[in-house]
Amino acid sequence: MSLVGSGLPHDWVSDLEPGEVLENRDAVIQFDGKWVEQTAFFVPELVELKPLLEQSARGVEFLGHSAASAAGSIEAVGASTGLDRLHHLLELFTILARAPQEERRYLADDWFRPQLDGQAAAVVDMVLEYVFTKHAGSVRMSEAAAMVGMPEPTFSKYFKRATGQNFSDLVRKLRLAHARRLLERSEKAISEICYEVGFANLSNFNRHFLNDAGETPRQYRQRVQDRPHRAIPS
């Protein structure tokens, strides 16, 4: 469950096997934060939402009970009409605004305040598509820069300013996300997973995985396997 403010680059990616389909993956509610601010002039109670709207500029992922409750409200919004729909929307806002800090995780650093115009957004989208398609193989910043017609040094600064992270960091994070999925859903050897997701050697893979997840790939797999069984969509 995530709340993403306008102008914050984002992309939700499901790393699926060939032919695998994940139906009803998303439920999305789009609203204009300015509408909430303007309505607060007439409905002062909505002032409680101001901190939430400010935090949305960084993107917020909600966890635990708050996420589960919010998901129920989102489904109720989609299933209702008229005043009932408004009721469930306000209920959703209340859950998010009052979520405890330990059930929130920010998606971007506090200093990251992207201001993307249409052209910049198009450039970022093109590069992200390239990375998502080729992350398990050879991904070169020089190729990405050539795609958008920029010298490599210019592209490096442009991408960092637009997304808040280095190009190489994005590639590494995507590879690690792919690795976690394979550790969860396959019995492949860790060394095999290392090369499949695009890392050049096992020691490098283990080091980056530990830095990112706080545990080794072996520890991660063991912890996930110890969880109660969950059905996996197919």
Q: Topology of this structure?
A:
Layout: E1 2-3, H1 33-39, H2 50-55, E2 60-62, H3 64-79, H4 82-97, E3 104-106, H5 118-134, H6 141-147, H7 152-163, H8 167-185, H9 190-196, H10 202-213, H11 217-225
Helix pairs in contact: 3-4, 6-7
Description of the structure:
With 234 residues, the chain is mainly alpha-helical. The chain has three domains: 2-106, no CATH class; 118-164; 170-225, Orthogonal Bundle (Arc Repressor Mutant, subunit A), CATH 1.10.10.60. The chain is 55% helix and 3% strand. It contains eleven helices and three strands; from the N terminus they run βααβααβααααααα. The chain has helices at residues 33-39, 50-55, 64-79, 82-97, 118-134, 141-147, 152-163, 167-185, 190-196, 202-213, 217-225; strands at residues 2-3, 60-62, 104-106. The protein has a three-stranded antiparallel sheet. α3 runs antiparallel to α4 and α6 packs across α7. The longest helix has 19 residues, at 167-185. The chain is globular, with a radius of gyration of 20 Å. The chain starts with a strand and ends in a 9-residue tail after the last helix. Residues 229-234 have low confidence and may be disordered.
What does the main sheet amount to? 3 strands, antiparallel
| Computed CA radius of gyration, to the nearest angstrom | 20 Å
Mean pLDDT value: 85
Low-confidence stretches: 229-234
